[in-house]
Amino acid sequence: MGYHDGPMKLASIRIDGDEVAAVVWTGGALPVAEIPDAEGWPTDLFSLIEAGRLENLRRRWDGFSERELEDLAGRAVPVEGLSYAPLYRRPRKIWGIGLNYAEHAGDLDETAPAEEPASFMRPDTTIIGPGNTIRLPEDIGRVTAEAELAVVIGREAKDVSEDEAPSVVAGFTTVLDMTAEDILRKNPRYLTRAKSFDTFFSFGPHLLTPDEVGELHDLEVSTVLNGGVCRHNTVSNMTFSPYRLVSFHSRVMTLLPGDVISTGTPGAVEINPGDVAECRIGGFGPLVNPVGR
């Protein structure tokens, strides 16, 4: 297997207590700061996105020869020793999209929106990363986990069309989105509270640029519990496609680099302490989180 095999995956990894941007490939995980460049690179992923340098990084990476990558692999963290962090911790905005697959709407005895997406916002204090524990607060009843594909915005965008939307997207990642369903069932106006408990938004491990993702509509999203696939569906079956969601929300408010739009789940699964929840999307590494109190 050559060092260029497979997509270039970006991640945040923990090294000596710091969370640093890295490229993950067959040679391991190489901190972006170790990649030769005349200008140097921002050391964290949010700053790399904010500076608009992902495309430059991808071109630089794609230009390396096999020999150069073999040399860089000597500075990389071995794959088996990786400790992933969330992609980053302080996006300006996190949008969530409810009921974007008609089948999931049936789970909640609701009708899927047909004219406009059912969107909500959540705080960044909900963010955790791969391997971190989803903490279920006491006395809130049933909690579900939902696997989702998320869009990461790459540059400032206002009033963009659906055709223009790909040009403002930095990439895509995997998400586990938790919901306190018993709170939500009391009253749909409680949605923000039901989504906003600490640890209710797992984010990572990999960011793939649009070119690396390939055919977006063919991606299959799976909600997995304790190793078994509970629900799955393809992006092509979304009511509102990822790029349509970008366009729609850019007409509500200015989107900024690092903003996240989580595009909805094919289906939720109830989680309890001792469980392991997982988001699987083809081409991405799995996002796996244990559940506890």
Distance between the termini: 42 Å
Number of strands: 16
The biggest sheet, with number of strands, parallel, antiparallel or mixed sense and barrel status, is: 8 strands, mixed
For the record, the CATH architecture of the largest domain stands as Alpha-Beta Complex
What helical percentage do the residues reach? 10-25%
pLDDT < 50 stretches: none
Description of the structure:
There is one protein chain. 18% of the residues lie in helices and 30% in strands. The chain starts with 8 loop residues before the first strand and ends with a strand. It is α+β, with helices and mostly antiparallel strands and 293 residues long. It folds into two domains: 9-81, no CATH class; 94-292, Fumarylacetoacetase-like, C-terminal domain (Fumarylacetoacetate hydrolase, domain 2, Alpha-Beta Complex), CATH 3.90.850. Strands 4, 5, 6, 8, 9, 10, 13 and 14 form an eight-stranded mixed sheet that branches.
